[in-house]
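ESCALATION

Customer reports they have been waiting on this structure for their group meeting. Please prioritize. Original submission:
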Amino acid sequence: MTELPEQARALFDGPHHVTVATIDPDGRPQLSVVWAKTDGDDVLFSTIKGRRKYANLTRDPRASALVFAGEDPYAYAEVRGAVTIADDPAAELIGELALKYTGEPFPSRPHEQRVIVRITPDRVVCYTD
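Update from on-call: job pushed to the front of the queue and completed.
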């Protein structure tokens, strides 16, 4: 495990959208824009069972997450690492992230099976001014 520098933590915990890369079955990268936050040195985001990134991560639990400051795109952080997935039946993480990003509660969607994706970094690249 690699420690997440404070500058990287600040970017991931800010209201910046995060691009997550997973690996498709044919080996090509697949990218998704997500809401995220940190938990210790890990980066967390929410997704739904059945989405491409969920299928990719259950098959190959490696991911990369990139975040940059909207006002300064040259201030960025990337985390690469192993992924663990946990069920989130109460949709707690997406609820927390919705408040962070929109200031509004996340709408109830009981038909969705939400999960929490945790990226534990084994490599961190961080550049800030």
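Sent to customer with the following note: The two ends are 25 Å apart (CA to CA).
Escalation resolved.
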